[in-house]
Amino acid sequence: MSHADASVSYLQEGRSVWGWLSTTDHKKIGIMYLYTILTFFILAGAAALLVRLELIAPGPTIVDQQVYNILMTFHGAAMVFLFIVPGIPATLGNILLPMMIGAKDVAFPRLNLMSYYVYLVGAMIALISLLSPADTGWTFYAPYSLKSGSLVIWLTLGAFVMGFASIMTGFNFIVTIHRMRCPGLTWNKLPLFIWAMYATSILQVLATPVVGMTLVMLIMERVLDIGIFNPAKGGDPILFESFFWFYSHPVVYIMILPGFGIIGEILPVFSRRPIFGYKAVAYSSLAIALVSFIVWGHHMFVSGMSDWSRWVFSFLTFFVAVPTAIKIFNWIMTLWKGSIHFEAPMLYALGFVFMFSIAGLTGIHLAVLVTDVQLHDTYFVVAHFHYTMQGGTVVALFAGLHYWFPMFTGRRYNEKMAFWGWLMLFIGFNLTFFPQFFLGMEGMPRRYFDYLPQFQTWHAISTVGSWLNGGSYIFILGHLLYAAFRGEKAEQNPYQSLSLEWQTTAPPPTTNFAHTPTFPESIYDYGTMDDGHAGGHSQRKAG
């Protein structure tokens, strides 16, 4: 490439609307994904706030039962299919993956752009269902989803179409990692984020078709009434549950594995310590992906399984805890005796470790048969799920957005504003969901519109926390949006990272690097060599 090309950042090239809409630059596609999924995140979050407000007191408060079911369905479906599944892979994955392996772009740039538009078409199809909003919950369980008078077909069809976007992204990433690594980048040197994205991509390609076919069968059942899931026609609604969870348990790891990768990149940089047990952390991502395929049965312990099946699935579920515990142990050992810098990315990363540890520990209660039977379909499950998805995936996404923000925008955010945003989020999140563990243990069922007066105190605390939680996201996103356009100019590599993506200009040129880069000898040797990081921090703070 010419010197002139390398001097122009990707943000300066093709700045027109058409330039953005027709781009095949992986960074711009990642930015478009980011704005789109965050829009759906805000809409789905608003629905959650209304659900929470309705539950502040027993009996009807602001909506009736039907509207409550609609809000809950929209919140769940939009959060899962429109925001959190594409979440990190489509945004930070798109922006960072080629840069972290020294490639100019992904293997199939046009396919990458197509995946965005397929996702967008799927989202629009799903939103058509709002004309007669679905009230089935985001799981679309049969037989109710076969009888509901709402436009549940459009919602499931939208999820089906978006599945193609997920498969295209996963396939593109797998080929890119296999074929486009720069000189010197062997498998045992891959950045941990790339290992996580590789494991995620395998899940996207292998698991997504299962839920796609399940949703097609559900649509056929509603349109043609052929009796696959309808017991009145000889069908089996439990079959729908098995198909649905065969995908939807691995999809939990499609959501959380990229978050693991982000945390693995941030902790060594801000603790100035080499990552502890690199190979164990890297290979545990693949182990989690493989084990995730054989544990879906623990979602169905009370759905009519045989005793033998319950024991087997309970036993298998514990296998997920092994590679997950390996990651948490290695993260803590990385922090041990480190020179820790409490800047925004690190605060989010530490918050992730704390909240995901709670998610992991409470997950054990749902793997053990005797406690799962007691806690199944209670608020304990709601709290565990949100500690995994929001306390894990969403917090990791925000950790990554802060960490790589100077690199892909060329500007700095305000550190004090970032701290207050993080603090509001940390307090608001825990105030919302920790009381729900107590609600679940006391027997409060989830998804219910009304409840007994004895549950009101915990519900009221949770509702107050939800508004602080929701307000924190508005604060954080507003601050980052302002900084993206009005923030002070960022210096190159402000955190003195050793990773390859920081070795180019900020923001990078369209082709990422002026010349084909050579991968560094090591990208995690912090504290064992004169990497100059401490000086970088002190200089930046003094300035």
Task: Give the SSE string.
Answer: HHHHHHHHHHHHHHHHHH
Helical content, roughly? 55-70%
Report how far the terminal alpha carbons are from each other.
35 Å
| SS element count, helices | 18
Q: Residue-averaged pLDDT, rounded?
A: 91
Main beta sheet, described?
Answer: none
Q: What would you call the shape?
A: globular
- What percent of residues are in strands? under 5%
Keywords:
single chain; 543 residues; mainly alpha; 18 helices; disordered C terminus
Briefly summarize what is shown.
With 543 residues, this protein is mainly α.
Explain what you see.
- The chain is an all-alpha fold and 543 residues long.
- Helices cover 67% and strands 0% of the residues.
- It is built from 18 helices and no strands.
- The chain has helices at 3-7, 17-21, 26-54, 65-84, 87-100, 109-128, 144-147, 152-179, 192-224, 237-271, 278-291, 307-335, 344-367, 369-375, 379-409, 415-441, 456-486, 533-542.
- Helix 5 packs parallel to helix 15 (379-409) and helix 10 packs parallel to helix 12.
- The two termini are 35 Å apart.
- The model is unreliable at 532-543 (pLDDT under 50).
